[in-house]
Design brief:
166 residues, alpha+beta, Arc Repressor Mutant, subunit A, two-stranded antiparallel sheet, three-stranded antiparallel beta sheet, elongated, hydrolase
């Protein structure tokens, strides 16, 4: 992993975290050779900042869900409850939603289970499409609270007022 200066040092860029972005060595080399434009690097920094993690797995998950949404078989993929724990930052960020599809109480020595269908929300779709397009303007619009994305539905506990306060 390399730390890339968004505004290059030779052009007056410093070591402030706002001017740095983690890139794999391959992408760093491609950028410095002119194959990845500066606008794509700025959008990548914005995506990482918006997701609040330099974890490539998070971005890969969004791209994976985008690909599955256009696949007739992939649209029916399901995820376990354990998978949802890994997706919690994306769910909490309003980028992904999960719908329960099946549950079982377990039998014959098998543990109980639940599976969920996981989908990109409109906000998640907009973010991925802006990133793929390399458009910082579209990215900013997809992350803006003024865009009018519907609020996440409160749980039954929240609606009844019995949710625990942490």
């Amino acid at each position: 992993m390399d730390l890339h200066h968004i505004e290059w040092v030779r052009d007056g860029g410093g070591n402030d975290p706002s001017n740095l972005v983690p890139l794999c060595g391959y992408c760093h080399d491609l950028h410095t050779r002119g194959h990845i434009p500066a606008s794509a690097i700025r959008v990548w920094k914005a995506v990482l900042t918006a997701l609040n993690t330099p974890n490539r797995t998070t971005v890969d998950t969004l791209l994976h869900l985008k690909r599955l949404s256009g696949d007739s078989i992939g649209q029916h993929a399901v995820y376990s409850g354990g998978d949802l724990l890994q997706l919690a930052p994306l769910i909490n960020g309003g980028l992904v939603s999960a719908e329960g599809t099946q549950a079982g109480s377990g039998s014959a020595g098998r543990p109980p289970f639940a599976v969920f269908r996981v989908l990109l929300t409109q906000k998640g779709q907009d973010l991925v499409e802006a990133w793929i397009a390399g458009s910082s303007e579209r990215l900013a619009n997809s992350l803006s609270p003024e865009v009018g994305y519907p609020p996440l539905e409160p749980s039954a506990e929240e609606r009844s007022g019995s949710a625990a306060n942490y």
